[in-house]
Amino acid sequence: MSQGNSAATLTSVWTGGRSPYAVNSKKFGMWLFIISDSLTFSAMLMAYTYVRLSTPNWPTPFHFFPSVIFSTVMTFCLLSSSLTMVMGVHAMNHGRRKAAVGWILATMLGGASFVALHLTEWLNLINNEHVKPFENPWGVPLFGGTFFALTGLHMTHVVIGLIYLGIIAFAVSRGKFKAEDVEVSGLYWHFVDLVWMFIFPLVYLMSAKI
Amino acid sequence: MSAHSEAVDHIDGATTKAFIAVWFALLFMTGVEVLLAYEQIPVLIFLTALVGLSVIKAALIIAYFMHLRFEKLSLFLTLFPMLILCIILMLVMFMPDSSRLMMMRPR
Lengths: 210, 107
Known about the structure:
The structure holds two protein chains of two kinds. By secondary structure, chain A is an all-alpha fold.
């Protein structure tokens, strides 16, 4: 290579080198997973919206109490758990492993509260409103099907997130894993929070008015 | 602040104060959403506000909590335009049909 070409390479605007996104492979892999999972949830949210718009007499059994109150508290739990998670990542980036474990456990508490409240809300719908996955008093079976599929898939993600964070917290407390591993688990957790930001208004809040 | 700590802060890109501010903003917008659901406002305005606030909340989570604001632009450009395009395609394919079915309901 000539000296001129070599100088041009050194001053090139391309700074990516071997890592064009300047992120490690685990983080990039998680981003790719998040994008593909976003499409799954987008499709499910659209399926719910589609059947809701196209079905006359769509049931709205979400009363202010307990449904809307519970789902609002659930939103608070998830948002707060996202804050504690970001604090955990921040602590880990600064090498404070003990603090990071504390923040991750706080995140898990928020997630567990969310699951407990959501199951209570489900049981309320099943026992008091008689909504089942494929039948309900209004004769609109698609309501139960889409509602339980959408919220159930989200709750499954939360439960998987809790297991994931439990493993991370355990490993970090034993001096294993790096800051990037905590950050990658944080990305997953924030994604779970993000999806709820669309499910909550679409399923619960819209029922209050429409 | 030590040199190492400063370097790490630079990598983080955001401070604890910023995270708490974002958390408060998210809680505030959630409160507004709940309030709007029980206010006497036209449905179209309600729906627009609900979708708008949800998108803003999602953007704040992605930008600050998921740190995307502090990543390289190439990462954003690789991931998000494709996602947005796919969502728009889904909307274009399905929403007109569901609206048509809504208009065809017996009155």
